[in-house]
Design brief:
Strand content: 15-25%
Largest sheet: 7 strands, mixed
Shape: globular
Structural class: alpha/beta
Number of strands: 9
Order of helices and strands: EHEHEHEHEEHEHHEEH
Number of domains: 2
Distance between the termini: 29 Å
Radius of gyration: 18 Å
Number of helices: 8
Length: 267
Amino acid sequence: MTIPLTSLVLPAYNPGPLVERTWDAVREFIADRAAESDPWEAVFVLDGCTDGTADRLAQLPGSTGPAIRVVDYPNNRGKGHAVRTGMLAARGAYRIFTDVDLAYPFADILRVAAALKAGAAVVAGSRAHPDSRVTVPVKALGYAYRRHIQSWVFGASTRLLLPVTLRDTQAGLKGMAAATAERVLPALRCDGFGFDCELLTACARSGIPVAEVPVGVRYDSTASTTGLRTTVRMLRELWQVRRWWRGRSVPLPLPVPAEPERLPRAA
């Protein structure tokens, strides 16, 4: 029996030299999965990068092969647009997106893939899951605490404004079956960081269950794209999502498979 292809989508905006380490890690991961007769592809989405990322990637090993592809467009449109573009360009029966810095290890990516293959239509990594683990170096404790407070405030606001029950909406690791992605994603409108909340709202409005899996996130850097200005913009996007999706659902809802059982505790 042929094992279906799984796609890994990595949106990026001016990632700098970091993207080369990610490329090498992803290339090795895909080779390892191929050796296990589990075919994967990776789609790097360059969201209007102006730092030479496209030229940098073109020089790397594997840049001309089918297992790793690059989708590049000229103007920065935001995370939501980049994720939608990559997920719809992907060819896999299962499609997963994560941050280009690989903050979530490949073990978590495989956990999301396993839940999709077990029948889930949508899977979200959750830092609030009781089996999740967060690794924080001493120098980043203050940063991690601030991120925790920001996440708590944003999560509470999300549950107040939207029909979303997940306690962690913003973890940068989610996946969808291809049929769900191709039905839901074209209906979404949010181009910014509010994309995750709009996706979860669309699922809630359309009766599509979202399975949560534990993750093992690490904070290696205190650099953040979620400062006060970004938080205010995200809250504004929440209100827009609320307006857009009041009374709406995705047309012609798919028959959705049952939510899989909770997966075993993360190693």
